[in-house]
Design brief:
The radius of gyration is 15 Å and the shape is globular. Helix content is 22%, strand content 28%. The strands form two sheets. Strands 5-4-8-7-6 form a five-stranded antiparallel beta sheet. Strands 2-1-3 form a three-stranded mixed beta sheet, with no helix packed on it. The chain contains five helices and eight strands; from the N terminus they run βββαββααααβββ. It has one domain: Beta-Lactamase, CATH 3.30.450.20. With 158 residues, it is an alpha+beta fold. Bound molecules: zinc ion. The site of zinc ion has 7 residues, from loops.
Length: 158
């Protein structure tokens, strides 16, 4: 199978040129890893939790049922939720109900509906917990990978 082009999900740099006939895939480039590990991630499908924990922004990966399969350290620090308390839970219903709206979940559903690798960048005001009076404005990148049916959210407070 010809290699696809790999684009960094965060900065949209082309990490490697592939067959232009193939849909692009998404990774995280070395710059965006902030040299934490000295290597880049050529795919977001990697089951490498340690590597995700070194990212300087939050990463949440959801399976086809919107259950959390990866919840990295930066996201845990941002939200105050412990990783072990959220893994396997339904993101929109149980963990982040503030995102269960057209502007967030609806966008993800529309990416999924394309059936192709997709990326969307946006801003969103999170409300973490009931006593978070002030919403936390964050830059969000959503990607969808039809090969794994997984969606990956990158989240950085601004
Ligand atoms: Zn990058």
């Amino acid at each position: 199978m010809p290699a696809p082009t790999v684009i960094c999900a965060w900065c949209e740099t082309t990490m490697s040129e592939g067959d232009p006939a193939e849909p692009v895939t998404h990774g995280i480039c070395r710059m965006c890893m902030v040299n934490a590990s000295g290597r880049e991630l050529v795919t977001l499908a990697a089951e490498d939790a340690d590597c995700f924990d070194m990212l300087p922004f939050g990463l949440v990966q959801l399976d086809a049922d919107d259950c959390i399969v990866i919840y990295n350290r930066a996201e845990s620090e941002l939200s105050g939720c412990r990783q072990e308390d959220v893994l396997g839970k339904r993101f929109f219903d149980e963990i982040a109900p503030c995102t269960n709206v057209t502007e967030f979940r609806g966008v993800l559903d529309s990416l999924r509906a394309t059936g192709r690798p997709a990326l969307r960048r946006m801003r969103f005001a999170f409300r973490f917990g009931e006593d978070d009076a002030e919403p936390t404005l964050a830059e969000i990148v959503m990607t969808y990978d039809p090969e794994t049916s997984r969606a990956t959210l990158l989240i950085k407070a601004t």
